[in-house]
Design a protein that fits this description.
This protein is mainly beta and 110 residues long. It is built from 1 helix and 6 strands, in the order E-E-H-E-E-E-E.
Length: 110
Amino acid sequence: MRPLGFRLNEDGTIDTGGPNVTATRRYRNVTARPGVGFVVDDMTPDEPGAIKPGMGRGVEVRGWVELTEIEVTPVAPEWFSHEIMRIHPTRVLQLAHRPRQPRRRFEDYR
């Protein structure tokens, strides 16, 4: 697992990459097998609210990758490569926060 930059597009795809992405193992792997898993996680803010502050939350996206080039990079144009890996989601699992259903951890959004 390696960190990378990403952008969620209006059509539901996710552009991923970083510097010199075509030289990475990740790029070589999706060239051979375009099926991927993409995980984003973080902690809830330390502010009062409906969800306990400091609680973990996240999303897992499964799908296939399209290798393409773009004009405008998702982040930091001086750092981010114009060659990207665009994820087309086929399944999205969200870490569920349900105090009344503590055993049900994920929701499936197919």
